[in-house]
Specification:
By secondary structure, the chain is an all-alpha fold. The chain has 19 helices and two strands.
């Protein structure tokens, strides 16, 4: 039987939007987070940091098509994970049939869900920049994708997952992506260890303008992140996009206000932090809440993570080992979803099911029990993700450590990109140095030489 290019079940508008949304999410990673990571770190870590993101994007795609897509959305193997198979490579069969959601082929869903999986690993990398062995990262990515991400995705998003059936609300990845990557990044950073003492004392970005460019791509790409979650070009997608921008802008402004009051001046890096926590916080609720609730979530995502980063991190030895706010913002968003989800909007996304209601609306309608049940489900989802990622990430790190060191050695930590990759991000030479004498010259094979030893020593310490 001949295949039809446009069968009756295919909605061309929905398919076009879903592919566009997936591309926007992909652009958040490549080039978005590649640029952001490469510019927000010290100059000596620019190449390594950007490369960690680029590698993860490519490695996740191959693993996703070979087995991870079906483990996340395929036939049930266990209540929390699907059965791996090679259907993700069957373009003439499985991938050409209608997918488990939306009026378009499974290949569209494979692509859309891939970019979510990829950005999750790249967000984990954000907690490990400037100290993790790149070879260890190459092994970590497929292992963590297989044993952590697929479990979270199947449990929360697959119609067969046990937390999906339990009614936990995660509109677009607050649990599966942001809370998961935050906890995993925190745990992996514990096993890898902190940055060097010198880097902890001062870790200035090497290019603030490029940091803003990467952050801007991240924010604009979130149009597809949350706007694609309804699996259709409908009014819920539009509501999700507007709420995403409202929450993010509010969070950024609140973070800057706190910085201005406490430290006397706002900073670009603070603006980026406030932007990211706002994006993370709204994600589980984007198409489920009213505009005022999105702004309230932004006010909290701009203040609560600010307190954990600016106050608690400086007073806790454990928190001082990492510099990540995703877990805090993700947990906050998950709980606030259970409090503020508007039942009519929830109905657009989940269908006619009275379970999906925020506590605030449930009390108003005389259904406090249903609202408390929803908050309980949200808290149970948080507990599951935290336990899963502490256990699996620790196991993966310990397994990787048997093959290669998790942490760069002291020489590599001091030298950075030159030592690890034999490459520099910028062809900037010291006083008295010429092209032929520098690392970029043809005769020195990656070794920096200079006519000024003092300048060379200072450069190595940057």
């Amino acid at each position: 039987m001949a295949m039809e290019a446009a069968p009756e079940w295919l909605e061309k508008g929905d398919n076009a939007w879903q592919l566009a949304a997936a591309t926007l999410v992909g652009l958040q990673s490549v080039p978005g987070l590649v640029i952001l990571y490469g510019s927000v770190v010290k100059k000596k870590w620019a190449v390594n940091s950007a490369f960690m993101a680029l590698y993860a994007f490519a490695a996740v795609l191959v693993c996703w098509c070979l087995w991870a897509f079906r483990m996340s959305f395929g036939d049930e193997l266990l209540p929390f994970v699907g059965r791996p198979d090679l259907a993700g490579l069957d373009q003439a069969g499985f991938l050409s049939r209608q997918g488990f959601a939306g009026a378009y082929p499974a290949s569209t869903l494979l692509f859309f869900q891939f970019v979510f999986a990829a950005i999750t690993l790249i967000l984990v990398a954000g907690s490990l920049l400037g100290r993790m062995n790149f070879r260890a990262w190459m092994i970590f990515v497929p292992l963590w994708l297989t044993f952590s991400y697929t479990v979270g995705a199947f449990s929360f998003w697959s119609p067969k997952g046990f937390l999906f059936k339990a009614g936990v609300m995660d509109f677009a990845g607050g649990y599966v992506i942001h809370l998961s990557s935050g906890v995993a990044g925190f745990t992996a950073a514990y096993w890898v260890g902190p940055r060097t003492a010198k880097d902890r004392e001062a870790f200035p970005p090497n290019n603030i303008l490029l940091t803003l460019a990467g952050a801007g791509l991240l924010w604009m790409g979130w149009t597809g992140f949350n706007g694609g979650a309804p699996y259709a070009a409908n009014i819920d997608a539009s509501a999700a996009v507007v709420n995403t921008y409202l929450c993010t802008a509010t969070s950024l402004l609140v973070w800057l206000l706190l910085d201005s009051v406490v430290f006397g001046r706002p900073s670009v890096i603070s603006a980026v932090q406030g932007m990211i926590t706002g994006l993370v916080c709204i994600t589980p609720a984007a198409g489920l809440v009213q505009g005022w609730a999105a702004m309230l979530m932004g006010a909290l995502s701009g203040s609560v993570p600010w307190c954990t980063m600016m106050v608690l991190h400086k007073r806790s030895r454990l928190l001082a080992r990492v510099d990540d706010t995703l877990a805090v913002a993700g947990s906050l968003g998950g709980v606030l979803t259970g409090l503020l989800a508007e039942p009519r909007l929830a109905g657009l996304f989940f269908g006619d099911d009275p379970r999906y209601v925020g506590l605030a609306y449930a009390v108003k309608d005389g259904r406090a029990g249903a609202g408390l049940g929803q908050v309980g489900a949200q808290l149970a989802g948080i507990a599951f993700i935290i336990a899963l990622n502490i256990a699996v990430t620790s196991a993966v790190c310990l397994a990787v450590r048997l093959a290669v060191p998790l942490r760069l050695n002291e020489e590599q930590l001091a030298a950075g990109d030159d030592s690890i990759h034999g490459e520099d991000a910028y062809a900037v030479w010291g006083d008295g140095e010429t092209y032929d004498q520098s690392v970029h010259g043809a005769n020195h094979h990656g070794y920096r030489m200079t006519a000024n030893p003092a300048a060379s020593k200072a450069d190595e310490m940057i």
